[in-house]
Write a structure and sequence with these properties.
The protein is of the alpha/beta class and 366 residues long. It has helices at residues 15-25, 37-44, 63-72, 90-98, 111-140, 146-172, 181-199, 203-206, 211-217, 230-233, 241-264, 272-280, 301-316, 327-337, 347-363; strands at residues 7-11, 30-34, 51-55, 81-85, 103-106. Strand 3 (51-55), helix 3 (63-72) and strand 4 (81-85) form a beta-alpha-beta unit. It starts with 6 loop residues before the first strand and ends with a helix.
């Protein structure tokens, strides 16, 4: 944690909170503590941090006003901001995310959670820096030997996958109910895709896929959950109708987040699959899904495959409000859903390899 000595600016008008926060973080990061947003902007003229921890309720310029100013300045717009606040309501959280915050931590601080949230965000920052550096180096290799170019390309692929994995882990660490879900669904998709290639199903479309990118991108299918309140995300009971409607927003938020990443770099082809998977994995073959109510082949193939993987894993996973279904029960429910919830063309594929899902589930238990 914090091995690279990342720089963090901690902004809070409370001297007690500044001292407490610095004591928590100084063993892991280079921490600059300032008592106001105005002082933060003075520091930013001299030092470019890797992360800003920003209090919301401050005099003169509050956190919301400060982040608006940050995001309007191209020099600082890319600095990730985690809001610190004593507020614990969904509207405040959503406002923060809409203004560009990457996370939201309530005070008083629970030290392990604060460090985990910061560590995951800085992992993304550091991996992205490595990725950009590697991409720049790759350009310089254009006139070198083919083998050197191939080696650097492999490094780029590894780093791109590392960024995807880091983002997905940031989401999963917030959702205490879905441990191992991302790796399990990735395994299910690999089995389905391999069998489709053997059967030459959707051959023309799948032949254009980079399978490594497809599987790595699947890890971002629930990235929008980062914007869902902990009170809903980790609720021990079944969601109410109103809460479920809020939960459904994670799809749109995820799509928007991926599109924003794609708009900031020309090297974004590895996110094309992620965009389609995130946006379509809750659509249903008969058009009764969300968010767009897409029907039949209008649903991207990546989303139709993820729908099977996602539902299977939800069924075989225990939740505070339900027991886990057996593998056989889960398979029966999915098989009954072909033609209504799932693409009927995929039924043959699932029936041939569905037994492998149980092995993947056992290998990646929480």
């Amino acid at each position: 944690m914090g091995a690279t000595q990342n720089t963090i600016i901690l902004v809070d008008d409370s001297e007690i909170n500044l001292v407490m926060g610095k004591n928590i973080l100084r063993n892991f990061y280079h921490v600059i503590s300032v008592p106001s947003a105005a002082k933060m902007f003075e520091v930013l003229e001299r030092i470019m941090p890797d992360l800003i921890l920003l209090d919301i309720e401050m005099p003169e310029m509050n956190g919301y006003e400060a982040i608006k100013k940050l995001k309007s300045d191209l020099r600082f717009s890319g600095i990730p901001v985690i809001f610190l606040t004593a507020r614990d309501d969904e509207d405040s959280e959503m406002e923060g995310f809409e203004l560009g915050a990457v996370d939201y931590v309530t005070k008083p601080f629970y030290t392990p959670l604060l460090l985990k949230r910061i560590d995951k965000e800085l992992l993304i920052v550091n991996k992205t820096k490595e990725l950009l550096k590697a991409q720049e180096e790759l350009k310089d290799y254009a006139d070198n030997l083919e083998e050197k170019v191939r080696e650097k390309t492999d490094e780029i692929l590894d780093l791109q996958n590392a960024v995807l994995t880091a983002v997905s882990e940031l989401v999963e660490c917030r959702d205490s109910n879905t441990g191992g879900h991302i790796m399990r669904t990735k395994g299910y998709l690999r089995i389905l895709a391999d069998e489709m290639q053997k059967e030459e199903l959707c051959k023309d479309e799948i032949s254009k896929w980079d399978m490594n990118f497809f599987l790595a991108s699947s890890q971002l299918h629930d990235v929008g959950k980062i914007a869902i309140s902990d009170s809903i995300l980790n609720k021990p009971d079944k969601l109410t109708g109103e809460e479920f409607e809020i939960m459904k927003n994670h799809v749109g938020v995820g799509v928007e987040a991926i599109e924003k990443i794609m708009s900031t770099t020309p090297q974004h082809s590895f996110l094309n699959h992620a965009l389609r998977i995130c946006g379509a994995h809750h659509e249903k073959w008969d058009g009764s899904g969300y968010p767009a109510g897409l029907k039949g082949n209008a649903i991207p193939l990546e989303g139709r495959l993820m729908a099977i993987a996602d539902v299977y894993d939800a069924l075989i996973s225990e939740r505070p409000y339900k027991k886990a279904f057996t593998h056989e029960q889960a398979c029966k429910i999915i098989e009954d859903g072909f033609g209504t919830q799932f693409d009927p063309a995929l039924e043959k594929i699932f029936r041939k390899v569905g037994y492998e899902f149980e092995r993947i589930a056992k290998m990646n238990k929480k």
